[in-house]
Specification:
With 401 residues, this protein is mainly alpha-helical. Helix content is 65%, strand content 0%. It comes from Ceutorhynchus assimilis (cabbage seed weevil).
Amino acid sequence: MSQSHYSDAEDSLTDTDNSGLRKRKLWDPETESITSEIKDLLDDDVNSLVEEDCIGCPLPSTPEDENVLDSEMSDVLKAAVLAALLPKFSGDEMDITTLAQNAATQAEQVVRKMIAVGWSVCHFHHLPDWLQDNDFLQRGHRPPLPSFRACFKSIFRIHTETGNIWTHMLGCVAFIGIAIYFLMRPTLEIEVQEKIVFGAFFAGAIICLGCSFVFHTVNCHSQFVGKLFSKLDYCGIALLIMGSFVPWLYYGFYCHFKPKVIYLSVVCALGITSIMVSLWDKFSESGWRPFRAAVFMTFGLSGIIPAIHFGVVEGWFNHVSQKSLGWLILMGVLYIVGAMLYALRVPERWFPGKFDIWFHSHQIFHVFVLGGALVHYHGISEMAMHRVTIGQCEIPDQLIY
């Protein structure tokens, strides 16, 4: 911080009277020692905050922000000195302790503004341990940003999380729009129970995609915030899988009440188990990535059993059966392939440093999850249309057939 900032504050305390004579400076005998003391205090406070909030990350601002940052720091520091000095001047005395405390408070605000406004991307090895997740992504990482405002502003910057944020943020907005359109249709077109069934899927998709994009936005805020939102992210995945099962089982076993209830109960039990596992602290650690993928893949693949049952009930060569199972299989392939790429960290594992910003495994996984959800929506819509077309069940409530 340049000495000129303090001299500007000093000059602002000097004025002229009506006769044009200059008044005596209120802090004239000790100006140099006081400003020196304040400057040392501010420098120490800045260093401590930098060590606390941006461990190992380059703090200097990006070139386009230097002028803005310098102006903000200058204004705030002037205000700090003036706010501390002016109320304390009665004659020639002033309270140096109060001055130092007020200036230190203002200095903290300056540093937090500096981190929020002027951060630049880091190399992987410059990140603190709690932000080191994928060492094959070498450059373009965000440093710790201890401000939610700064985290959300980073949505519009280019870094390793940009693609992860935008894929699921746009997907979340899309499903909110689809859900509003579907659920607002007149009851004569879509019955209430149909809306509830589709609503379970919409809720799972919106929660999953919403928690995902928020997690990838704020995971650099702090270790506590990162862990908290990672748990919400994984819980969202479990809810998406649960919500996806509901309409498929409802329409697939529309005329077979008992199997439908049994399968829905099993799905709910598996979903609750997955959520409980997701809340385990170690579950979000980078070393447990394959285990995370295995948990959700196992949950999803549990749908093979009701799919086989559905094929037996409807007939393997039945047109409706083939069409319904076809969309289900395509959804499963998208989810499984995406999860495999995520677990193996492909393609960045093969080309470290080449997919730091675009097309790395987590980004591809996000695209596949969004694609799988859209495919599933189309598939259950086809099943619902078929059910409306054929009318009521001929022989309801059969256990197997």
